[in-house]
Specification:
Helix content: 25-40%
GO molecular function: isomerase activity
Enzyme class: isomerase
Largest sheet: 6 strands, mixed
Shape: globular
Subunit structure: Homodimer.
Distance between the termini: 26 Å
Structural class: alpha/beta
Protein name: Ribose-5-phosphate isomerase A
Function: Catalyzes the reversible conversion of ribose-5-phosphate to ribulose 5-phosphate.
Bound molecules: ribulose-5-phosphate
């Protein structure tokens, strides 16, 4: 196992402690969230976790739940009236628990599920913690296809660079689970995350922004390469 794998596993195992018997669990998207899902699967299979229901934050996660043989536990938002805990990864985290998410283009469903949950637990490895965000990743923005050039122009007018995200092979823009496109935005100057989240969200055509407010995050679990964890 690489040191990143060890760190991810340490964070994911700690997050399991937030899952109680009978809980409705929001399951995040990405490699770290999948480590959590596989660990949860192991505990469900050996009877250590009972009667949970799983609400996926993306089609990718939904497929993984099915592939693990857990389709009977799969639920969609319209089939539950609350989510007890959501466990999700992030691309970047700052000291106030603000997040950049959407590296996997799932930010809209992630924000719906994660913000809805009574407890929102973020699992990351140490390399994703920064003093200021965005640090190394652009801010992903989900936009309706009709509007992408207009949103791009509006944000570049304010300052920064905006790129339409393409899939591997560049055959065309990637299309989200909601039938939309993703713009990746690198602001020219430092941003205040919650102000930028609100401002970008108000541009017509924007569906959701991959900035998540730290006030909505209950806990960040940071896995370290030696297998230890720290929390914020
Ligand atoms: C997907 C996400 C992911 O949570 C984020 O990209 C982190 O993924 P990984 O754990 O694979 O680094 O926001 O939209």
């Amino acid at each position: 196992m690489s040191s990143a794998d060890i760190a991810r596993e340490a964070a994911a195992k700690e997050a399991i402690k937030y899952v109680t018997d009978g809980a409705v669990v929001g399951v995040g998207t990405g490699s770290t969230a999948m480590v959590f899902l596989r660990e949860l699967h192991r505990l469900i299979s050996n009877g250590h976790v009972k009667d949970v229901l799983l609400v996926p934050t993306s089609t990718e996660t939904e497929i993984e739940i099915i592939n693990l043989g857990l389709a009977h536990l799969l639920r969609y938002p319209w089939q539950v009236n609350h989510i007890d805990v959501a466990v999700d990864g992030a691309d970047e985290v700052d000291r106030n628990k603000n997040l950049v998410k959407g590296g996997g283009a799932a930010l809209t469903r992630e924000k719906i599920v994660d913000y809805w949950a009574r407890s929102f637990v973020v699992i990351v490895d140490e390399s994703k913690v920064f003093d200021k965000i965005p640090a190394k990743h652009p801010i992903p923005i989900e936009v309706i296809p009709f509007a992408w050039p207009i949103v791009k122009a509006r944000l570049e007018e304010i300052g920064g660079v905006v790129n339409l995200r393409f899939g591997s092979g560049k055959r065309g823009p990637i299309v989200t689970d909601n039938g939309n496109y993703i713009l990746d935005y690198v602001p020219k100057t430092e941003i205040v995350p919650d102000e930028a989240e609100g401002f970008i969200k108000r541009v017509p055509g924007v569906v959701e922004v991959g900035l998540f407010n730290g006030k909505r995050v209950s806990k960040v679990i940071i896995g370290r390469p030696n297998g230890s964890i720290i929390t914020m």
